[in-house]
Design goal:
Blueprint lengths: L6 H13 L6 H9 L6 H18 L5 H15 L13 H9 L1
Helix pairs in contact: 1-2, 1-3, 2-4, 3-4
């Protein structure tokens, strides 16, 4: 991948890898999460989709660090600036609600 790849591009490659019967490494999932961009809600949805698909199709287990990284990346993508400003709703409940709306 190019140095400035998006989570969608990473997911596409990992889907191809998983479809070939190869295991998905935790470091590859971490790289997908770290590629999230502030203000791009689609990146949060891509990370959520990756978690669901990898669990279902690849028996992928997310360790505590990976889960924390995924949540932080999704929250970063849900906010315009990447971090909460004064008066802005922020947290796990808002993230879960926004992902499924």
């Amino acid at each position: 991948l190019a140095p400035d790849f998006t989570p969608g591009q990473a997911l596409s490659l990992l889907r191809t890898k998983g479809a070939g019967g190869q295991a998905i490494r935790r470091s590859e999932f971490h790289n997908l999460c770290m590629a999230s961009r502030p203000g791009w809600k689609t990146d949060a949805v891509v990370i959520h989709t990756a978690l669901l698909e990898f669990k279902r199709c690849n028996s992928f287990l997310v360790e505590e660090y990976g889960a924390k990284l995924a949540m932080e990346a999704m929250m970063k993508s849900m906010l315009p600036s990447g971090h909460p400003s004064k008066g802005e709703a922020f947290g796990e409940r808002r993230l879960n609600a926004a992902l499924f709306v």
